[in-house]
Amino acid sequence: MSKLTDVPKRILIGRALRSDRLGETLLPKRIALPVFASDPLSSVAYAPGEVLLVLSIAGVSAYQYSPWIAAAVVVLMFTVVASYRQNVHAYPSGGGDYEVANTNLGPKAGLTVASALLVDYVLTVAVSISSGVENLGSAVDFVIEHKVLSAIVMILLLTLMNLRGVKESGNLFAIPTYVFVAGVFIMILWGAWKGIVLGETMQAPTADLEIKAEHAGIAGFALVFLLLRAFSSGCAALTGVEAISNGVPAFRKPKSKNAATTLLLMGALAVVMFCGIIALAMATDVRMAENPAADLLRDGVPVGESYVQNPVISQVAEAVFGSGSFFFVLLAAATALVLFLAANTAYNGFPLLGSILAQDRYLPRQLHTRGDRLAFSNGIVLLAGAAILLVWVYDADSTKLIQLYIVGVFVSFTLSQVGMVRHWNRHLKTEKDTAARRRMFRSRAINAFGATFTGLVLVVVLATKFTHGAWVALLGMVIFYGTMSAIRRHYDNVSREIAAAEERPDEYVRPSRVHSVVLVSKLHKPTLRALAYAKLLHANQLEALSVSVDAAETKALKAEWERRNIDVPLKILDSPFREVTRPVVEYVKGLRSENPRDAVSVYIPEYVVGHWYEHLLHNQSALRLKGRLLFTPGVMVTSVPYQLASSEAAKKRAKKRQDWNAPGSVRRGPVDTRRKEPTGKA
Prior knowledge:
Layout: H1 3-13, H2 29-42, H3 47-55, H4 66-90, H5 96-105, H6 107-137, H7 141-145, H8 147-163, H9 166-197, E1 210-211, H10 221-234, H11 242-246, H12 255-283, H13 292-295, E2 296-298, E3 301-302, H14 312-321, H15 326-342, H16 344-359, H17 377-393, H18 398-401, H19 407-428, H20 434-465, H21 470-498, E4 514-519, H22 525-536, E5 541-548, H23 551-564, E6 570-574, H24 581-594, E7 599-608, H25 620-629, E8 635-643, H26 647-657, H27 665-668, E9 671-672, E10 677-678
Parallel strand pairs: 4-5, 4-7, 5-6, 7-8
Antiparallel strand pairs: 1-2, 2-3, 9-10
Helix pairs in contact: 2-9, 2-12, 2-15, 2-16, 3-10, 4-10, 4-12, 4-20, 5-6, 5-19, 6-8, 6-15, 6-16, 6-17, 6-19, 6-21, 8-17, 9-12, 9-14, 9-15, 10-20, 14-15, 16-17, 19-20, 24-25
C-alpha cells in the first residue's frame, strides 16, 4: 500500500494487529454490556415516547393505558431474555438466531432469519443516530437545522471507532453508557423521592398543553387496535437483545456464562429504566403528539410549526431536576451520546453475522476476513453505507424510521425460539440422564413460551405497522434473501465446476505442445527479460509478437531486432485501425483453433512502479490484454514484472512495516542505488 493511503489509515485506525493477538480483543462483562447492550438500554430514551405518541391519537385520556402497555413490554422483555439465555448456552459459536434456525429448521428458515437481522441492524444504526441527532438538536440549533448531515457525520465517526477494533471501541463507549444508566436511575429515584416522600408536584414543560384527539372517544375494536399499535411501538425497547447471542465469541471465557449474565443484567436494567420513565411521564403530565404543530394546543390555539417537541426523557428530566440544572444537562448530554453509541450494537452484530454468512457462502467471502485491527472491517463499512443511504432517504426522521423497525427483530425472535424447541426435542430423544433431561424440559418450556409470545407480537406488529412503513422492512428482507440465495447458487455452481473429479477428464491431460508468445512493443530491458524467462521454460515453440500501429516504429523495431541478432522469430501483426488488443486476441485464438490440443502461453512485460499515480501512466494495454486473454480457453497468461527505479521507494516504505520483496525483485537482481540500474543480467 502506498504511503499516501497508509499513513492516514494508521493515524485513523491504528497499527495493524497480528492474528495471534485476537485473544487480547475479547471483552470482559463490564465492557461487553455497553458494547452489545447499548441499543436496548438506550431505547428507553425513545420507546416510552413512541407509546405516548400512538396513544395521543385518542387524546390524553388514553394515557391511562400506558402502565398496562409497559407491563406487557416488561413481560415480553423477560421472556425474550430468558429464551436467549438458553440460546447462548446451546449455541456459543456466535451464529445466534441464524445458526439456531439454520440447524433446526433448515436453510430457508436460517436465511429468513439472517435477512431479518441484517435489515434490523441497518435500521438500528439509522434509528439510533437519527434519534440522537433529535435529542442533541433540542440544545444545539445547528444540529436540528442540518439533521441529515449531522447524522451522516455521526455514522462516519462511529464507523471509524469500530474500525479501530471491538475492545478499543468498547472502552470508548463504556463511560457514556454507564453515565446514562446512572443518570436515569438517579432521575427515577429522585423523582420518586420528591413525589412520594416529599409530596412535591412536578410538571413537565408540556403539562399545560392540551391534545387535540384525532379520534376522540375511541372505543371497541378501534381502541384495541390502538393499544396493540402502542404496544408494538413500545417493543422497540427489545431491539438489540439478539446481538449478545450473535456476539458470544467476542466474550472472554467462559463465553456462554458471561454472555448469559450480561443478557440478564441488560434485561433488568432496561425494564427498570423503561417502567420508571413511563411512571414519571404520567406523574409529570407529559404531552406528546404525532403532529405537534397542529395537535398540541395552548389555550385552545395550536402551538404552530415553530414548536419543537422534546423527547419524553428530556421533559421528565426537566420536571425532576429543573431546567438548566447540572443533572439535567448531564443526562441530556449522556442521552444524546448514548443514542449515537447505541448503533454500536449493530456495528458488532452485523459484521459478525456477515462473517458467518460469508463462511456459509451466502455473502461475499471478503466479509469473512478480519481487517488490520482484527475487526470485520468490510462488514462495518457495508453497514455504514446502508445506514447512510437510509438516513438520507428518510431525512433522519426517527418517527418515520421507527415504523420500519421491530418487524425483523420479531421474525428472528420467533423462528429462533421455534428452532430451540426443536433443538431440545432432538436432544431429549437421546439423553438418558435424569438431571439433564429435567434441565432440557425446563429450557424447552421457556423457549416454547417465548416462541408463542413473540409469534403473537409479530402478528400484532405486522397488523399495526404494515401500512405505516413496515412493508419497507419486509421488502428489504426479501431483497436480502434473494441476493444471498443468488450468491450461494453462484458459489455452489463454481464449486461443482472446479471440483477435482475422481477420473481424469480432458483438462487433466498434458497438452501435446506449448506455444509461447512474448508480446513486444519496443526492444528494451523489460522485453529482453520476458524473452529470457520464456526461453528458460523450454516451450515447444517460441515467438515474439508485435502489433504495427506506426510504420516507422515497426521498421525501427525490425532493424534493432536484426542488429541484435535475437534468436527468437518476430511476428508483426498489421493493425490498420491502430488497435492492439483485438489483433493479439484473434492471433492467439487462431493458434488454438489450428492445434486444439496445444496450450498457448502468453508473456506480457509489465512495469512495477512505486507511486499510485504511475499506475495511471503505465500497463494499461497489458491490463486490457490480460482481461481479454483470460476468457480464452487453453491460454495461459504470465506477467513478467520489471521494477522501475521508483519501485524502490515503495520497497523502502514497506520495509519499515515488515520484510518485503516486490514482484520481480528476484529476477531483477541487486540494485546499485547510485546508478538506479540492475547489476544482474536481464
